[in-house]
Amino acid sequence: MMRKQQWRARSLGQARAPPSTACGPFAKDSVVQKQAGEPGQRPARHVARHWPLAAALVLAGAIAAGLYLGAAGNRTREAMRQGATVTAPPVHVAIVEKRDVPVFIDGLGTAQATNAVSVKSRVDGQITKIGFEEGQIVREGDLLVQIDAAPYQAALDQAIAKLAQDQASLTNARQDLVRTSSLAKAGDATQQLLDQRTAAVAQFSAQIQADNAAIESAKVQLAYTTIRAPLTGRAGFRLVDAGNIVHANDQTGILSIAQITPISVIFTAPEDELPAISTGLQSGPLAVTALSSDGKRTLAEGTLSLIDNQVDTASGTIRLKASFPNAEQALWPGQSVTTRLRVSTIRDAVAVPDTAVQRGPNGLFAFIVGKDGMAELRDTKVGPIQDGWVVIESGLVPGERIITSGHYRVQPGKPIQVVSNDGTTAGDNPSGAP
């Protein structure tokens, strides 16, 4: 009975044991266990004896892998460090040259019509005809507005008739004077009568002069009924229509005319630039360029025509006026423009592109390419900067190659790699010219 229970327990233990999936160093032991068919307690003790050896092998492998990866990383970092040290930074260069550099004063201005008039009526009356179109270019003397002239023609006719009447009276007075003079010589007329006849002649003569003046006044009033353009320019909006009655004392005009060919531009310059402007004018007219408000498009070319007679103390600026032919009518009254006044030209100046000059803790400097192909730092003093060029007062010599880009990686005394604009290196472009 006892043997039967032990045999049942061993059978149950073998049935519950999971199938062996061991691999590696334990695979052989598992196979031996299966083939031997020995009791379950004996294989467990056999596997336990191999655990220290397996753990030692795993630990040794991990240590070896770590040492290998660390050495490989050190070699990679060292290679990168050596490569960064040896590789020369690519740069673009330009040649220090002598050239004429113009000196400009930039400012902001407003276009203004050379002449502008508000056309008004000088007599009262009804408008019978409009002789222009809005926005039209009118010429001096062109008909603009016709006012009813009938009342003024009648006044002129009346003045002419009054003149004829007074001329007849004067003729009669002169005849009376002649007769009275003859009688007075014979003693048949008194001196008093002679004086009266003389005064009558003088009176009618003065009346004739007044009539002539009245006629001229009537003619002027009649002429005012025809309104003509006082100058050549562009007509603005029409403020009255045919049939309206206008008066000489109306505050609102009939239309406005602005002369825009030529046209003027009023702009300002700092008061510190006034001596340079005055000196430049002594050599002749100064050129002025009018550009769009963003400064990207040239609108017109003109000359400086006026310097104001006083400086604006509030802003510290001086007002200037330039005149432009404006044949293409690119400028318009009231338009905001950017102005460039050319005050002088520096002849044979040592100049470089403005990107070549850098600012450091000790002031301005530039890198040049030395004869040995190494970067060389030069301290510089600069003058005016105009249109992408800077005038060099000291520090550089014409003909030297100066670095214009890639400064952030350049170090004094270190090699550089000159790259031209087409991407070739110094090897492809030995001169190093851009």
Report on this structure.
The chain is α+β, with helices and mostly antiparallel strands and 434 residues long. The protein has four domains: 2-49, no CATH class; 90-100 and 348-418, conserved putative lor/sdh protein from methanococcus maripaludis s2 fold (Beta Barrel); 105-112 and 260-346, Efflux pump adaptor protein, beta barrel domain (Elongation Factor Tu (Ef-tu), domain 3), CATH 2.40.30.170; 119-246, no CATH class. The chain contains seven helices and 20 strands. The strands form four sheets. The chain has a six-stranded antiparallel beta barrel. A four-stranded antiparallel sheet has the order 6-5-3-8, with no helix packed on it. It has a three-stranded mixed sheet with strand order 19-1-20, with no helix packed on it. A hairpin with a 2-residue loop joins strand 14 (358-360) and strand 15 (363-369). Helix 5 packs antiparallel against helix 6. The longest helix is centred in the middle third of the chain and has 37 residues, at 150-186. The protein is elongated and about 175 Å long. The two termini are 109 Å apart. Residues 1-47 and 427-434 have low confidence and may be disordered.
